[in-house]
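look at this one:
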Amino acid sequence: MIATIIVIQPVLGMGDFQFDISSKVGDNGNYTKHWSNTYPPDPKADIIIFAAAYNTAYKRMSALTFIFITYDPNDNVISVERNDTFRRNYDPEFVYYTLHPSTDWIEGNYRVRIMVYDRLDRNGINNITNDPQTIGLDPDKYKTFFETGSNAADLGALLSQGTIIAQQDLNFNIDKSATLFPPDRFLLHDVRFVDASTERILGEKFRIEVKIDNNYKDDGNVRLAMLVDNNMVSSKDVSIKGGSTSTVIFEAKAGKIGSFKLHFGSDTQDVKYRNAELTFSIKEENESTRLDTPKISIKAMNIDKEFVPLGENVTVTVTAGNDGKSGTKTITVYSNKVPVGSADLEIKFSEEKTIEIPVKLDNIGINKITVSDAPSLFRNVFVQESSQNQNNPVVERIKENPLKLSMVVVFLVFAAVLYRLRKKLKEDEKK
């Protein structure tokens, strides 16, 4: 429904005005026009009437009254609202009046008449501003008037009724079949691969990012489905706060070779789409232009025992992954930074592989075990002479459970710290 515009200008020709029905308001007179001017008879609906008055100030003062009168389809008044504004500057006036339809409102065309009154008494203002001797009799009173205008009525600068300077009728409809939500309540947009590459490799796991806006004031929920061609690959339940944007991440795996189109679906018609499709290809590793060299990295390292007699092997388990072309990497094991064993690992793109490397430790005492390219991953192995192990039943028991050895070491360290602390306290007492 197009609003009927009837603007009455005063004899003085003062002011410029704007009236509209909006769905969302912002700062400094910014608003979003309602998409249809049609609402259900639901108290949750917001019929927002926007009114703006420009260039209404006289001698840096503006005092306006906005009257909103709502008529039903039978031309009966169902609502009256008054809004008074006052400014001591040249800024425009912005007024928003919100109607909430009642459940008993009948269907049909409704009309809102907006009337704007100017309440400034120009003669009174002229009498105040043109007589400096009067101002000098009570400067504090006039200081308040000229700086804030809060006492304008007391000084005779305001009229009780005022003069009508603008009038306009706006129309809206009440329809039981209408929805509260805008047609693009949810806007899904700007889908992209997180790594920005549209060339994928067979067997590769990848991530897709998409944004979704909630263009309604209340929080909303929607179930999104990600499809490749016509096959659903993944789905997510998404919650979006009112008037905000959420970023959703989907994960998938390249399952077969070819060219494909990625797009989305939802469980509600309230979702609209913009830049919400991607065309991509899946290739064999040897056909891809993305991969030029192997990118093999160590993911984890462990040992099978923490205590061994001299001359006994320790098995070091190493897990590696490859984000590049298929290739081979030599994994070297170090004990106290000295190489003690190695093995070659052949690994394909996007593969994760584990190998076992047996090593023999000849250094009695603590051996710090590390592997090439991953110095932050280390384990300690305690090596002791075989003859000492045979004569030490405690060590034999510990050998059966490496965890016990760790507990013993921790206990010994704690005992040493406690001993030093007690000794220090005794020395302080003597002093």
